Each structure stands twice: as C-alpha cells, then as structure tokens.
User: Fold these one by one.
Assistant:
Number 1:
Amino acid sequence: MRGSHAVAELHDTALPGSGIRREWQRFTPGQRLARFAVYFFVVAAFVLSLGTVEVIPEFLWDAPAQMQDLLVRMWPPDYAHYPASVHDALVETLHIATLGTVLAVVLAVPLGLLAAHNVTPSHTVNTLAKLALVTSRSVNSLVWALLFIAVFGPGALAGTLAIAFRSIGFVGKLLGEALEEAQPGPIEALKASGTPWPSLLVFGYWPQVKPAFWALVLLRWDINVRESAVLGLVGAGGIGVALNTAMNLFQWDRVAVVLLAIFVVVIVAEVVVTWVRGRIL
C-alpha cells in the first residue's frame, strides 16, 4: 500500500501453532532511520545554537521591566513632530520603494528571459542569468545599501539602488519560472506560422505570464515599502533616518510617531495592492 507521505511495509511473522501472520508497518526501516536522523539533527542544531547565542539571564529576566519602561516613555506620541520631520521622510520612503521596483523590473525582465530555457535555449546563457539572479537575492538590502552608500554617498539614491538590486533576483527568478511553465501549444503554432521572435514573446508568452507578472510586481512593491522603511538606519534615506535620529536622541515619543507612521503606510500599501490586484487580474 502506497500513500502520499509514507509506504506501508508488509512483514510475515510466525506464530506458534497458527502459521503465518502478516503485520503492516507504516514506514520501512530506511524511512524510520531517515526520520530519526532528521529529528536528531534538528534537536542537535537547536542545542548548539542555544549554546552559541549566549543569552545573559540577567538581561532576559529584566526584559519585561525594560519594555514597560520603554512603552511608558513612548506614550503619548508627539504628533506635532509629524509635519516637521516625519511626513517628508515618509514620502521619500514611498518614492524609494516605487522607483526601486520600477528599476528592478526593467533590469529583471531581460534576465528572466535569458534564464528561461524555452525562451533562450542555451544552457550557458541560462546558467549565467540564474547566477546573476542568485547573486541579487543572496545580498540583503541593507548590505546593498552600505555598498551604494560607499559609492554614491548617503541619501535616497543609495536606497533606491539597494531596493532595485535586491528585487532583481526576486522578479527575474519568478518571471523565468512563469515563462518555463507556459503552455507550448500556442508557442509552437506561432512558430509554425513563421512568427518572428519579438512577436512570439508578445503574442505567445506574454498572455500566459501576464497575471503572474503583475502579481509578483505588486507583491515586490509591497515588500519594498517595508524594506525601504529601515534603509535609513544605515543612511540610505527615507523614514529610517527620522527613526534613527529620534532613537539616538532618546526622543521616544517621536519614535512612537515614526513607528505608527510606518505601520499605517504598510497597512495602506497592503490595501492598495489587494485593490489593484482585484482590478487588473
């Protein structure tokens, strides 16, 4: 008997004076050994990690009191601080997220086309394109921001480029996978009629990948709004600069205003993305 998760194994067991009895077991010996090995390594990794973290018990027990004291300092929020310092930084954050997403799409589409084997039938080109996409995804946006700050200096330009280069791997990888999952029937029909390659992309592949493409672009923009809110902590512009300044000056009532503004923007971005997806998909 074969199931979706395990394979039952049939054993013959001899009983005194009654012949043979068949006994079913859910897992084979090899499967039981593999399950035990997975559980063992998970527990071992947890124990080793717990020992490496080096938690200081005094700080751990004192954490609730420190959190309560921090919340008391943050209340009530200094809403008068919003027009002077928070609003412009918040708008800049949205600009960073939007421009970074647009730039990422422009750069990711060619890489996605090169990474899809059915669009670009060259193993070498596919491998190089996928390597570029993996490189983009493997570097965190804060690290990208630090690199671009070293090149262009602190400001919104470094944040925009950090968001863009972080997003290229996400958009390009998913676009390439959507292209590879396209139905070959319409593509072969267009090829048989002598359709040139640009028209093949527009009329063969694009109608099939359009829903997935717009969905991943909207999702990436939503993610970028969240990520761009913290880039200012390393000097890459946006509302993170206002947050970092307020924290360094121990102005916790202003920190509460910044955090509240970030929370509201994230919720609004989620609502906008959901509404747009319902309209265009």
Number 2:
Amino acid sequence: MDGNAPSTSDRRAIPARSPAFSYDDLPRHWFASNGMATQMANGVNLLFPSGERFFIRSVKHFADRIADPGLRAQVQGFYQQEARHGAAHQKQFEVLRAQGYDLDGFLRVYERIAWGVLEPMFSPEHRLAVTAALEHYTAIMAEGALAHGTLDLAHPAMQALLKWHACEEIEHKAVAFDVLKAVDPSYATRVWGMVTATVGLVLFWAASTGYLLRQDAKAGRPLSLRALREFRQRRDQSVVRNVFVRGMREYFRRDFHPSQNDNYGLAERYLASAGLAPA
C-alpha cells in the first residue's frame, strides 16, 4: 500500500449497528415538501440495497489475499454495515409501495442490467475498483449530510436513516480502496474504475429518479416549473459540483487516499448525539 494508507495499528474499528426507524407518518414528498428533491433522494436510495450487495461481493472475492489483520477486521465490519444499510432501505421501500409507488419495475431492470449483464463483463479487479470509487462518492455525500445541512429539510425519520447511513459510510470509506491497493495498486485500474462508476451512477440515478417522477405526474402531482428551476439550481451546486466534480478531482490524484478527507469527527459527533457510538 502507499504511504497514505493507515498502518495496522492505526486502523479504525468499524462496528455494526442496527438502529430502528419508524416511517408511520412519512409523507410522499418527505424532502422539503419538494417532489424533485424527494425523488432524487428516493432514486439514489433505490440503488443502495443491491448495490451494497455488489460491494460486499467485490471485496469478498479478494478476502483470502488480505494479509493485514487490521484490514481483515475492517473488511468484516464493512460487510456487516453494508448488509444492514441494505436491509434498512428495503424497509423504507415498503412504505413507498404502500404510498402507491411501483418500485419493482425499475428494480428488475436495474438489477438485470447492472448485475446480470454489466457485472460479469468486468474483471474482479475492475469490480473492486468500481466499488472503491462509489465508496468515495458516498463518503462525499455523507459529509454533505453531516457538515453542510443537506438533510435539514428532510422528514425526521429519513434524516435519522440517512444520517446513520452517512456516518457508517464515513467509517468504512477506505476499506474497499485499501483492499484494491493491496491486490492491484495500478493507477490505471483505479481511474478506469472511477470512470465506470461515474457513468453507471449518473445513468442509473437519473433513470430511477425519472421513473418516480413520472409516477408522481400520473398520480396528479406534477412538478411545478418554478420548483424544478429552484431545485435545478440547488442540484447544480450540490450534486454535480460538490459530489461528482469534487469526487473525480480528488480521486484522480495519484497520491489520493480516502483518509485525506478527515471527516471522521463528523460521524463520531453525530453517532454520539444519537446514542449510537460504540461503548
């Protein structure tokens, strides 16, 4: 590994948690009472459960090649956290279904294309590189949620779900990257994984958001042009620039390591305030 990676003695513990969330009064438009904001958030949430199973598969493929005992311990925590994230989001899917949204039409196509067609096309090393890149993006989104008030206008139940998820994304943000560095330290592999991850995330996220917005329109809840213009401005400032542009700019540095973004304190403070810090 490069000099930026932590030593075995410096590796952080990655504990698994199972908080409970109640969505009993979750409105259809739970994010700022705004259809576009809500469906963009729901759209990326739809990608999480099977995406996180892909992350686990990608790392687990190389489990027997991880020599560092500290990294092996982190990998086990990574598996547990990602599995619990997927399960928590699937519970929220049931609320969306009860509200009348059809999720399964999109999920069938997404999973068939992403994991039935695309995943087998790439080498295990490339799949791991894609995972490392997507973990970098989720860590940036997590930082926004905790440091910049991205979720301030969200319903309390979704705030709790997404902030817990954000904290754990920060906790394990370097795991896939460190496994990649251990099994294939090639800069080209890392960059190609980021390119693939970016294209896939943009296309699937746009497709899931559009799928949900069309259902809102059919249900008589069309998006107003004013709301669309206002949200487009916020989206351009946050998602495009602060996630994708920042993410690629950082990741393409040859000496990059996820720990260079020292946002662990954000996660520690929120988890402590929510009673989720480890004993």
Number 3:
Amino acid sequence: MEQLNKLWNAIGGDFGWMIQIFVLVTVTFIVGAVVRHIVAGLAERAQKTRNRLDDVLFGSLVGPSRVLVWIVGLSFAAQIIGLRTEEEDTQNIILNVVGAIRNVGIISVVTWFVLRFINNYEASYIAAKSSAGEKIDKTLVNAVRNVLRAAVIVTAGLIALQTMGININGLLAFGGVGGITVGFAAKELIANMFGGLTIYIDKPFGVGDWIRSPDREIEGTVEEIGLRVTVIRTFDKRPLYVPNAVFTTIAVENPSRMSHRRIRETIGVRYDDIARIPKILQDIRKYLNESPEIDQSQTLMVNVDEFGASSVDFFIYTFTRTTVWTEFHTVKEKVMLAISDIIAQHGGEIAFPTTTVHVPEAIALIDSAPGKANLKQDASAPGAD
C-alpha cells in the first residue's frame, strides 16, 4: 500500500492520493456489481439442475458477495487516508481501527452468508419434501434451524471479539461463573427450555395435533411449540400457554395419532325377548362384518354381557376405519340406528327401567264405602281364620 501510495503521489503530486481513492472506490463499486451479476447468473443456472445444494449455495452468495467486495475496497481507501496522516501515532490508530473494522465486516458478511444458507436450505428442503408428497416434521426442522443459527451467531461474535483485541478467555471464564449464578436464578426458564428440547427430540406431539393429559386439565390443538411455552388452543377457542417443563412430568395422550376409533356400547333388551337374542346378535355381527366403515381386521365382539335389573344386556366392541372425530360420530350413529332396526325386525324392544309388582290372588280390593277401600282376606285362602 505504501509503494502504491508513493507511485500515485509521483504521478499526481499532492492530489495523487485523492485520485487513488476516487479510482479505488469507483473500481470497488464496479467490481461489486460485476461479482453480483456473475453470482446471480450462476444461481439461475444452478436452479436448472437437480442438485438442491448448488441452488442454495449460489442463491445465498448473491448479496454477501457484493458487500464483501465493498468492504475490502473501502477498507483500502480508508488505509490510504490513514497513510496521509502526518502524526505516526494517529496514523497507527487509524490503520488499526480500519483493519479491525475490515475484519469484523468480513466476519459479519460470512455470518450473513451462513445464516442465509441455513434459511434457504430449510425452505428448499421443506419445498422438496412437500412436492414429493412426503410427510415432514416442521417442528423438528425449525428447531434444528434455530440451533444452527444460534451456534453461528455465538461463534461469529466470539471471533469478532478476538479480532478486536478482546481476550475471550476471561469472557468465557466470567461466563462460566455467571452461568452458574444465572442458572440458579433462572432454573425455571432453563427447565422450560430443556423441556422444549425434549419435545423436539422425542416428538410426542407436533403443531396441529390434538392432545390431552389425564393428569392435568390440558386438552386442545397444539398451535405453537416455543422454547419456553407451548400454545394450545382449547375447544372453546381459548389459548392455553403451558410451560414446556410441565410435559416432562405428566402423561400426554395424542388422539391425533390413533390408528382407529373404538365403538363400545351396551344395549339392553327386555326379558320377554330373551329367546330372540341369539338371532339379534347374529344379525348385528353380520351387519358389522359387512359394513365398509368398520375395520374387520380389528377386534369385533357382539356378546351377551349380563342379566341386568330390568334387561338382558349385550355389548358391541368394534373399531371404525376413520379417526376423524366428526366422521366417527356419524359412523357410530349409523351403527346404533342399525342395531335398533335389527332388534325391531325380530319383534324385540330395547329395555328401559321398569318395576313389576306381583299381587297374590288371595288379596282382593273391596269397596266398603264411597271413597274408601279396604283389603279383605279371602276366607278360602291358606291361613285364613
């Protein structure tokens, strides 16, 4: 740089350094535009290939490549200005500051490129899987992206501090001691963050799943899984914010992932129809075995269960093919009405609670006076005096 500065001064006299800065800045912006045009052209060509990685790589380089040229060119121009300073101490300070700013700028551009690469790769991966009809776990993909972004930002920050002359060993040591203190003060926050990490790894549920817990009053559709809380929309449309640490200590049911829905009902018929029950059960089994909405590969039972107080009870135990809650109730309605029709076809009736009072023939009701009734014992009955 000093030799170049002397050459320009020899050519342009006292104004040689100004001409040098003008030319350098102009060339910098021209080269930046050319580099961006070349990278953009490569990105367009990469999109025509089947390889997804080159699309993401060149697409992420379009902006950072031009800025990188600007940083390098403008830093050289700033160094020329520094060399024109007469005082040596001031000159050294300017050159050191310009060098540090240039290094931090380069680190920032590289970090920008890596973050763009992570985001673009995530979008490309989701689009490719969706177009292929494959099922993807967006929650896990977003979690991996966030972890990678955080790691890149922290690493870039430490490198930038080291470049600026700050000893990061002391910072790391202070961070270790401070981390212990913060850990005690924010243990709930840390527990929730680890709970969120557990959800990302174990995947007991995902966004859009219907979940519920037999241990807590938690039931609804998962809307968001954050680092600290999970947002659940209850069935009365209220948002429920559950700390992630809660899910490490409770049982969680995920009905959204059930393979079938079960129909288990008990029906009672009158004792007067007990002779008709075998044929009724036979026709119900036939109906369930022929129904396209019932999965015959699963357990299917239609059997007498017990002799109740006022009915002979039998139960049906079967599984529907659909797992959609609204469709399940439509299928269940058809099954229950079909059972009612089968019972009626055999001349039977569904029982309801009744009480029958048996009066002995020896007791008769006799009117002895208007508005009065007495019980009179038949003289011929056993035990009559």
Number 4:
Amino acid sequence: MTTNDIDAPLILAVAPNGARKTKADHPAIPIAPDEIAAEAARCREAGAAMIHLHVRDADDRHSLDADAYAQATAAVRREVGDGLIVQMTTEAVGIYTPAEQMAAVRAVRPEAASMAVRELCPDEAAVPAFAEFLAWMAGERIMSQYILYAAEDIARFTELHKRGVIPGKRPFLLYVLGRYTAGQKSVPEDLLPFMAAAETLDADWAICAFGARECACALTAVALGGHVRVGFENNVLMADGSVARDNAALAGQVASGAKLLGRSLAGADEARAYLDRS
C-alpha cells in the first residue's frame, strides 16, 4: 500500500509563487530571481527542505525558459547552497505541449522536477515518449515527483508503473487536494479518496491544498506519514484566516505542528537520501 511512515522525517516543500499569481495578489509574491532566493532562505530557516520553482518571462507570465531557470536556480544556490532541493515545474498552464514540457526539463537539467501525469501522458499514444523521457530522467538522476489531481489519476498512474513506463520501486507522488471543488477550498477529507485509491500502490506521497485549510490538510497528511507542500502558489492565508506575511510563515506553522505530531523535519540532504531509495 502507499507508504505511510510516521517515523520518517517530514519533507516540507514550499511553492512560493506558482504560475499565475502576481504582486497584485500579494505584495510578497517572489517573482525576480533575487526575490525567489531571499524567500528560499527564509523558508529554509522555517523548516523547508525543498523549493518548488516557477519562473516568469519579462511580462510576468508563466515560462519554462531554460535561461530563466538557470538564473533563478543560481540565485537560490547563492543564498542557500545545497540547503534546499530545487524542484522545477513542468506545468503547462495552457501554453506548453507535452513535448515542450519534456524538452524544457532536458534543457534545464534540474535537480528535481514535478510533472502532472495527465498532462505529459494524456493517452496511450503519448506513452512511448513519456517512457523514454522518464528513463532519461532516471539516467540523469533527476528526482521525479508525479502530480495527481484526483483519485482516478491513481489508477492511471498505477497501470503505467506496473507496465514499467514509470520507473522506480517507490515513486514520489503529490496529491492535489480540492483541485476540482467549488472555489478550490480544500478540506482534510479531500485526502481520503486518494488514500483509498492508492491502497495497493507502494509510493511515498505528499499533498498540497488550497485556501485557509491548507495547514489543516497538511497536518492531516503529516499525521498519516505523508509529506507536504505549502506556499503562495495555492494559498496566501494562515490557519486563522489572516493573510500570511510570506511563504516562510506558512511553512513555519506546518513545521511547528509537525513537531507536535512527533515528526522531525528533514533537511535537504536527508530528503535527498530518503527520496533516492527507489
């Protein structure tokens, strides 16, 4: 069944900006490389081991440009060294094709990348290219995280994993809670269909969630042995409904709650070693 290891160190990831939000949504949304780097340092101090990185073009629009990723990654490394895993997004946002998404990862060669299975492998015709891409990632030792938006995505993922299209003994999943609910306001119960659907799947997993219940969803996952991604990409509200000062504030409240639940926080090197077990 899905790995539920409450004794494992918690891998706390932060998604500080996302593909769509601007400073009109929150003045502390980090967009420029130096802003992202400064936020990364604050989030590491708050307990994060990973940053989920989006970059923008000159007009602040979502981009998968390799040069923009190189600049942002270099800025983060100047601030934190290897103190955070830097994970690239492959999100399409209605702009990029699967071929372009995979080409972007090849161009960037990031430490880690996340990908939505329903985007990169939407049908059987897409399987050969997806399998070849994942084999290349494995050969390059790029850490993969597979994004699943609904419980039915797990059946598709499980089938691809059994066929060997998705490599690795223990893949790392991200359950997106409440993606298709009214107003995208997640609640902890949104985790239950994922857990039920993944009963026979041997995998590590994390969650992300939308709205003021993000922290409650995160701590539910923590209590069940999962991992967590929080941040302004999906939510700008603290657990009490107030607007968060920055991403580090969101990370910090989860880190504090995790300690009360008996979960230690993984540093970046510990997270790397844990996720390299497959």
